[in-house]
Amino acid sequence: METLTVANWKMYGNRNEWRDLAEKVTTGILDINTHVVLSTPSAAFADVSVLLEGQSKVFLAAQDIHPNDEGAHTGNTSISMLKDFSGSFTLVGHSERRAEHGETGELLNSKIKQALKHEICPIFCIGESLDERKNNKTIQILDEQLEFGLNNIDISSAEAIAIAYEPVWAISSSVGSLGREPSNEELEDVFTFLKTKMVKRFGNEVGEKIKLLYGGSVKPANTQKIMTVKNISGVLVGGASLNANSFIEIAAQVAAKKA
Ligand code: PGA
Predict the structure, then answer these.
(1) What pLDDT, on a 0 to 100 scale, did the predictor assign at position 78?
(2) pTM of the entire structure?
(3) Which atom of ligand 1 is least distant from the CA of 215?
């Protein structure tokens, strides 16, 4: 199985730390059979992109993009800026963007369309809150988020898009976080639903192969267990991605997934 290990550096670090991390990760995963995506702050694009030149396993990503090509949108990053630094992925709809910036399903849909139009792979983040989980609404919420986000979207290749399931209560830094990943039974339920939904939405050929990632408190100690869940093809890592050794160890365990 082709796997993906995604780092989300959020709003952490400085030039020295970004360069150090990117260099160590790029060297550290040379013998590891997984593709790696580094979602860096936009301020790190220049430094990180230089370090990724000439290699084919580590990709640069934005943490968010604006749905328009350019314009008077203070504080935002456009797709062409990301592409200018050879970026090829972007997160869309991370729960921190949804919560802090009130991003709606409609807006996320336009960001996904913008990414696809410019051949940037959106990693579309979805996930339920703790209350929704307690009220047995997980699948309903994920279904709604997917319906909104993927409205009127057509893709012809499974590589065009990836989905990341990140329950808000499992993200280590979220308010009210339980600071733990879901049980494997909980993950099996969600990922079976996601796989079925993707096949229904995009057909067998494409839907079967769309990468389905898990994110929320991923660390070296729990990656192997998470990766035993059928239909999980990789992870999205926040806190533990800021330490090169931890992240490389996670990538190695992701790569070891049995098909
Ligand atoms: P975490 O963050 O790994 O620190 O829980 C994951 C995320 O927010 O993408």
Answers:
(1) 98
(2) 0.97
(3) 6
